[in-house]
Write a structure and sequence with these properties.
single chain; alpha/beta; five-stranded mixed sheet; 6 helices; Cytidine_deaminase-like; zinc ion binding; dCMP deaminase
């Protein structure tokens, strides 16, 4: 039996992390790496110490904002980036693995934080019924290498 590729290991971890999410609408996981080392992880959900949507609002989830998105949730990418930054970890030149491609807002954060490669499993546009993955287009436009995992 051959050794698994790092892409497979990191994407499998992102999938497992997604299962930790308290969101009742979508479960997303993220893993930030540098070379062959994990430097941060995250999954989507409300900020630590606030609410667990699946426990407080198991049928509906948290209230929606004006765009129909969760009003409390941090996205998996945001949580992974925030955790790294809070712990003084530079993200310059890192690779981000996510189970869902980023929204435009997260794409701006990903680019600005120094991530230079992104691998995603599923399309955010397909999930939301949108014609275009704006986050992916933004990242590619500004030189981030983006690949869909298969």
């Amino acid at each position: 039996m051959g050794k698994p590729e790092f892409d497979d290991i990191y994407m499998n971890l992102a999938v497992d992390l997604a299962r930790r999410s308290h969101c009742v609408k979508a479960q997303v996981g993220a893993v930030l790496t540098r070379d062959t080392r994990i430097i941060s992880i995250g999954y989507n959900g409300p900020p630590s110490g606030t609410h667990n949507c699946d426990e407080e609002w198991p049928e509906t989830g948290c209230a929606r904002d004006s765009k129909g998105s969760c009003s409390l949730a941090l996205h998996a990418e945001e949580n992974a980036i925030i955790y790294a930054v809070r712990n003084g970890v530079s993200l310059e030149g890192t690779t981000l693995y996510t189970t869902l491609s980023p929204c435009l807002s997260c794409a701006r954060l990903i680019y600005s934080s120094g991530v230079r490669k992104m691998i995603y499993k599923h399309s955010y546009a397909a999930y939301k019924g949108l014609p275009l993955d704006e986050g992916i287009e933004f990242l590619r436009k500004f030189g981030v290498d983006v690949f869909q995992y298969n």
